[in-house]
Amino acid sequence: MIVNPIAGMGGPVALKGTDGPADVATALRLGGQPLANDRARRALMALAATGPLEIMTAGGLMGEDAVRQAGHRPIVVHHPAASSTSLDTRNAAQEMRDAHCGLILFAGGDGTARDIFGIVEDKALMLGIPTGVKMHSGVFGTTPESAGQLAALCLSQDAIQLQTCEAEIMDRDDRPGTDGRFATRLFGYARTPFERRLIQSAKSTVGHGDDASLEALCAQLAETLTPGCLYILGPGTTTARILHHLGLGGSLLGIDAVRDGRLVGRDLTESDILALLDTGPAKAIVGVIGGQGCLFGRGNQQLGARALARIGRENVIVAASLNKITGLKPARLFVDTGDISLDAVFSGFIPVQIGPGRSVMLRVGG
Amino acid sequence: MTYARGTAHPWMANSVESTKQEMLAAIGAKTIEELFEQIPADHRLSRPLALPPALSSESELRRHLIQTLSKNQTCEANLNFLGAGCWQHYVPAVCEEIVRRSEFLTSVFGSPMSDHGRNQAWFEFCSQIGELVNMELVGLPVYSWGCAAGHALRMASRITGRREVLVVKAIDPERLSVIRNYCEPPEMSDHLAVTLVAYDPATGLLDLSDLRAKLNERVAAVYFETPSYFGIIESQGAEIAALARAHGAETIVGADPISLGVLAAPADFGADITVGPTQPLGVHMNCGGGVGGYIASRDEVKYAREYPTLMISIGETIKAGERGFGLSLFHQSSYGMRDKGKDWTGNSVYMWAVANAVYMSLLGPEGFHDVGTLILQRAHYAAKRLEEIPGIRIRLEGPFFKEFVVDFNETGMSVAEINRRLRKEAIFGGKDLSADFPELGQAALFCVTEIHSQSDLDRLHSALSKALAS
Amino acid sequence: MTNAIKLRNYHAAVWDEPVVMEMGHPGRRGIVFPQAEDALRAAAGSIDAMIPASMRRKARPSLPELSEPEVLRHYLHLSQQTLGMMGISLFGTCTMKYNAPVNEAVVARPELAQVHPHQSEEDLQGTLEIVHNFDLILRELSGMDQFVFQAGGGADAAYTHCCVTRAYHASRGELEQRDEIITTIQTHPCNPATAAAAGFKVITLMLEEDGYPSLEALKAAVSNRTAALMINNPDDMGIYNPHIKEWVRIVHEAGGLCFYDHANFNGVMGKIRAREIGFDACMYMLHKTFGAPKGGGGPAVGAYGCSEALAPFLPAPVVIKTENGYALDSDRPHSTGKVREFWGNIPQVVKAYAWARSMGAEGINEASDISVLANNYMEVGLLGIRGITRSNPDVDSWRMEMTRYSLETMKAETGIGTLDVQNRMVDFGMDAYWLSHEPWLVPEPFTPEAGEMYSKEDLDYWIAVLAQISAEAYATPDLVKTAPHNQSIHQMKYESLEDPDRWAMTWRAYKRKRPSVGNSDS
Question: Which positions in chain C touch B458 (Cβ < 8 Å)?
Answer without folding.
Answer: none
